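hi!! sorry for the late reply, been swamped w classes. u asked for the two structures so here they r. pasted raw, havent cleaned anything up. first the sequence of the first protein and right below it the tokens
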Amino acid sequence: ELGWISKVYVNRPAVVRHAEQIKKWKTVKGNWQAAWLLKAVTCIDLTTLSGDDTPSNVQRLCFKAMHPIREDLLKALDMHDKGITAGAVCVYPARVSDAVNTLKAAGCNIPVASVAAGFPSGQTPLEAKLTEIRLAVEYGAREIDIVISRSLVLTGQWEGLYEEIRLCRAACGDAHMKTILATGELGSLANVYKASMIAMMAG
């Protein structure tokens, strides 16, 4: 039941005010800062999404994901033996096999992520989106980053958005799914909130 979604209201001045306050928060320093930065590295998806991607530049990206920080810096921090790697390697579906094979050959368990569902525009028929997702999983992607059809948000088709995301989630099988909302194209903070809620409800 998504009737409540049309009643959502976002207090934009309050959001802007809170965002300004966040910028003034104190940041951690010294060893704490180094620890947070190292943790941040492990959460990053190293990504190449270029039209001229080749197996060789995907292989270079995988090597960088396995060794994101210079060894001498890790030794200085006494973190050289802690297995610091990027969180994932993210590529187009056509390059998933290159990344999977490179990481497997190196004995590395970094997951391969793939954008799908008509990335980046989302202007692709639903059946084509679902096929692209299934192929990426078949090629070895362990995470799928979908994009939503922004037109469904802009025209208030919330049930349609829910169904699209639900079908994409089912197509992922055991692979983890992230939903890219393209917030800059959704028109308002209320639409961002609604799309976020529907994405979560759809799995």
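now the second protein. again sequence first, tokens right under
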Amino acid sequence: AMEWLMKAAVQGNAAAQVGVGKLYRSGLGVPQDYRKAFEWYLKAAEQGNSTAQNYIGMLYDEGHGVQQDHNKAMEWLMKAALQGNAEAQIGVGDYYCYGLGVPREYRKAFEWYLKAAEQGNWSAQIRIGILYDEGHGIQQDHNKAMEWLMKATPQGNAAAQVGVGNYYRSDSV
């Protein structure tokens, strides 16, 4: 895979550059190397590839291959999120939810999670359910919490299934 991806990547193909970055990040077929992953993701990210922008944000968040920097992570996550990348939208939501590099703002976290949840992303759907359950950024509403958790359960997510089970057990809905 690396041989063929590299042929396209060196010609400037952003999707191939992301593929090369993924192989270096995971260590599949090549020694794991976060710095090389970062370099290849950056080539694609600078071309506007939202997947690469999201991965750049994640590497800055984790401090893999680069110095950990929540401000730079948020900058790259936001670029991808504004293009509709659901994973990046969750990342931006997490940054607002936990106050990483930005002030903690549950309402903004909710808005970004909602963008990803409406795309069918189960992880975002669970986060929306939790915010409704706890009343962070929105008015507490156990029925809406249950609705969002239920949306994530058909996708086989155990956390959502546990949440739904706990609601039924507690008679909160």
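hope this helps!! also noticed smth abt the second:
The two ends are 50 Å apart (CA to CA).
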